[in-house]
């Protein structure tokens, strides 16, 4: 069983963080970050060529994290793989003992460093989730039987702030849960009121799946403004004002993140937080500590290499 | 082919620029004699093909003259003509022809002196450009 | 219709370097409607080629012809004699026309004068939009007439994605998010079933991923 699944099953408030693999073939930094984050988080996401920029592959990075004592969450996008490659990667991940898989459609290649690439998008995130669940139950997408089915703990992302409405996003979250998502990590939250409206809609649908709210400590007012410009991001005016007025923006960023986490813990239905501090991972241990989330729950390590026992 | 004066073809709208050219003549205003005025029912009638054809057949420059904006007898013919001329000028650049050889003007029927002035200006401009290499005017199969 | 646009002239010029007699073949079908490859455009291009060649000091003959549709073998064939008088043909048909003309005289260079762009239509004068990707398995009946294949940048079946904001697509704010539109339209019609159900993966084998497509209609066959 994956550690993340056990933390969630035990009803403990989960903490996950993100690691962005490098744009080169040296994985020392990934291992270093895994060692930094493992003691203060329950699992660490490995992004899959995030924003469509070529990076060390998330599966290899996940193996590095595991070897460094971490608990990887493999991010897998539909942008670069068709159903054949996706199923193959899921089998491969499970064979390496990697169970947590975040199933994503992926950022469009237009945003990356190879905008001329052919986007695959054979499946979308919902279909990938359904396929991962099916594989866990012993079926390939085509219905063929899998002799040793992969043990997987699929998750998904959701953006509470995207269109057409919070209610629609909640319905899509529920759809992902129906398709097989066992946990949800959300887009970065700054707009607490907007997030609360979303969670109210999620509760109305019966809280179908544990939700980990996304948190990013802003490094500067400029970083925050940049995020504001990305479609689907919502940055609160208050956060912006505070960052602009701060004499020590980094300190203020950490304070903001800590306050947010404390507030998010109070939102009914929130099962944890997912801290995305790519490029500023050193801030994560402090944020977790100051949010009162240390120590992390002890989970009995159970061996899970290979297919389901 | 050598010529002392550049040859300018002026496509002039019947409702305004053609009348202005007429008026300039009637007023005995002097303007360079190297202009060939072609009457068209509207500047919007001047397809890019006509302009290219004129250049292919030996013109050094082409001007399209229509009514003042808002005064087109056919509502928007002159506006269309302007956009077409602009697009054609971009094509000319790709063809290796100086885009300033072609220009769109707006005139009213009363602007005889302005017509004379435009012709003089265009002629001056064309004089300043290197001479064109004309190809034999021969349409295959025609 | 098939919407196309002119290739940038320098690209064409590159391919025409050593031509002497060029036949510019227009098409009276879709490309005439979108004003990229009809009779008028063929005549303009022929003039343009002559002008360009003349400026290079290497005069070329360039002649424009047009047939009602280059994608009909009979009409394509009818261009044979005119093609024989040229050494290079520039087809202003869509890719189908270029291919058909090349079949008429396989020994001859037939160049594409256009970039065949998409199945679409005119949404306002001078503005053309893609509407169909010809995937061979139409789902418009379930998606409110809005195509997730042609109109969603990520081909989603369970959209909209997390980048949909204010009804705009994350990939290009000039473009409406197809899934936003689908959701609005189906909700307004009270047909939310499709939005709630998990749309299964698409069978792309009909979409060209199964190889070049061919339809045989016995009732029409000779
Ligand atoms: S924003 Fe809408 S149209 Fe654009 S990729 Fe996402 S779902 Fe598709």
Structure in a nutshell:
The complex is a heterotrimer of chains A (309), B (142) and C (222). Chain A has 309 residues and is α/β, with parallel strands linked by helices. Chain A has helices at 3-9, 28-37, 58-67, 83-95, 125-136, 166-179, 192-204, 221-228, 237-245, 249-266, 283-290; strands spanning 14-19, 43-46, 72-77, 100-104, 153-158, 183-188, 211-215, 270-275.
Task: Explain the overall architecture.
The complex is a heterotrimer of chains A (309), B (142) and C (222). By secondary structure, chain A is of the alpha/beta class. Chain A folds into 2 domains: 1-156, TIM Barrel (Alpha-Beta Barrel), CATH 3.20.20.220; 159-292, Alpha-Beta Barrel (TIM Barrel). Helix content of chain A is 39%, strand content 14%. Chain A contains 11 helices and 8 strands. Chain A has an 8-stranded parallel β-barrel with strand order 1-2-3-4-5-6-7-8, surrounded by 7 helices. In chain A, strand 6, helix 7 (192-204) and strand 7 form a beta-alpha-beta unit. Chain A starts with a helix and ends in a 19-residue tail after the last helix. Chain B has a single domain (8-137), classed as Rossmann fold (3-Layer(aba) Sandwich), CATH 3.40.50. In chain B, strand 1, helix 1 and strand 2 (35-40) form a beta-alpha-beta unit. Chain B is globular. In chain B, 46% of the residues are buried. Residues 135-142 of chain B have low confidence and may be disordered. The two termini of chain C are 27 Å apart. Chain C has 222 residues and is α/β, with parallel strands linked by helices. Chain C has 2 domains: 2-118, 3-Layer(aba) Sandwich (Rossmann fold); 136-199, no CATH class. Chain C has helices at 9-16, 30-33, 39-55, 73-78, 80-84, 95-104, 148-151, 178-189, 193-196; strands spanning 2-6, 21-27, 61-67, 88-91, 109-112, 114-124, 127-132. Chain C is built from 9 helices and 7 strands. The model of chain C has no long low-confidence stretch (mean pLDDT 96). Chains in contact: A-C, B-C. Chains B and C meet through helix 2 and helix 3 of B and helix 1, helix 3 and strand 3 of C. The structure holds iron/sulfur cluster (SF4). Iron/sulfur cluster binds at residues 152-154, 156, 159-161, 163-164, 169-171, 177-179 of chain C.
């Amino acid at each position: 069983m994956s550690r993340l699944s056990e933390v969630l099953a035990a009803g403990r408030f989960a903490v996950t963080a993100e690691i962005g693999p490098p744009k080169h073939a040296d994985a020392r930094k990934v291992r270093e970050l895994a060692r930094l984050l493992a003691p203060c988080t329950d699992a660490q996401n490995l992004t899959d060529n995030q924003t469509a920029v070529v990076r060390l592959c998330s599966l290899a990075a996940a193996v590095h994290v595991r070897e460094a004592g971490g608990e990887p969450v493999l991010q897998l996008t539909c942008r670069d793989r068709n159903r054949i490659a996706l199923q193959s990667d899921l089998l491969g991940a499970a064979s390496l003992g990697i169970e947590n898989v975040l199933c994503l459609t992926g950022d469009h290649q237009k945003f990356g460093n190879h905008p001329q690439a052919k986007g695959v998008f054979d499946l979308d995130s919902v279909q990938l989730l359904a396929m991962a669940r099916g594989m866990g139950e012993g079926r390939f997408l085509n219905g063929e039987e899998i002799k040793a089915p992969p043990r997987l703990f699929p998750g998904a992302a959701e953006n509470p702030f995207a269109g057409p409405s919070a209610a629609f996003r909640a319905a899509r979250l529920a759809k992902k849960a129906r398709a097989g998502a066992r946990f949800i990590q959300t887009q970065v939250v700054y707009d607490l009121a907007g997030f609360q409206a979303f969670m109210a809609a999620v509760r109305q649908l019966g809280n179908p799946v544990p939700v980990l709210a996304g948190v990013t400590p802003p490094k500067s007012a400029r970083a925050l403004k940049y995020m504001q410009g990305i479609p689907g991001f919502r940055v609160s005016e208050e956060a912006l004002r505070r960052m602009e007025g701060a004499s020590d923006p980094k300190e203020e960023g950490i304070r903001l993140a800590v306050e947010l986490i404390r507030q998010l813990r109070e939102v009914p239905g929130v099962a944890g937080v997912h801290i995305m501090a790519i490029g500023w991972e050193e801030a994560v241990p402090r944020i977790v500590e100051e949010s009162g989330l240390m120590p992390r729950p002890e989970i009995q390590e159970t061996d899970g290499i290979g297919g389901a026992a | 082919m050598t010529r002392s004066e550049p040859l300018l073809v002026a496509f002039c709208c019947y409702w305004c620029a053609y009348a202005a050219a007429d008026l300039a003549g009637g007023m005995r205003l002097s303007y360079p004699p190297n202009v060939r005025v072609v009457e068209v029912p509207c500047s919007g009638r001047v397809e890019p093909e006509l302009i290219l054809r004129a250049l292919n057949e030996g013109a050094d420059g082409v001007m399209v003259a229509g009514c003042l904006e808002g005064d087109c007898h056919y509502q928007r013919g002159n506006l269309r003509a302007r956009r077409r001329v602009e697009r054609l000028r971009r094509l000319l650049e790709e063809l290796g022809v100086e885009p300033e050889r072609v220009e769109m003007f707006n005139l009213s029927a009363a602007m005889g002196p302005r017509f004379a002035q435009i012709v003089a200006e265009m002629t001056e401009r064309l004089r300043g450009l290197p001479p064109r290499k004309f190809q034999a005017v021969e349409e295959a199969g025609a | 219709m098939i919407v196309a646009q002119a290739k940038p002239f320098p690209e064409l010029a590159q391919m025409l370097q050593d031509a002497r007699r060029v036949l510019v073949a227009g098409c009276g079908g879709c490309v005439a409607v979108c004003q990229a490859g009809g009779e008028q455009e063929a005549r303009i291009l022929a003039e343009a080629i002559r002008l360009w060649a003349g400026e290079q000091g290497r005069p070329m003959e360039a002649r424009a012809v047009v047939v009602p549709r280059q994608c009909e073998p009979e009409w394509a064939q009818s261009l044979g004699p005119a093609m024989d008088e040229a050494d290079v043909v520039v087809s202003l048909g869509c890719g189908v026309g270029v291919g058909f003309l090349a079949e008429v005289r396989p020994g001859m260079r037939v160049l594409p004068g256009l970039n065949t762009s998409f199945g679409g239509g005119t949404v306002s004068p001078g503005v053309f939009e893609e509407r169909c990707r010809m995937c061979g398995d139409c789902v418009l009946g379930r998606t409110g007439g809005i195509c997730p294949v042609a109109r969603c940048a990520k081909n989603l079946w369970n959209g909209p994605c997390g980048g949909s904001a204010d009804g705009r697509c994350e990939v290009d704010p000039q473009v409406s998010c197809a899934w936003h539109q689908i959701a609005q339209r189906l909700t307004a019609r009270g047909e939310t079933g499709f939005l709630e159900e998990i749309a299964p993966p698409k069978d792309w084998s009909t979409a060209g991923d199964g190889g070049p497509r061919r339809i045989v209609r016995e009732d029409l066959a000779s």
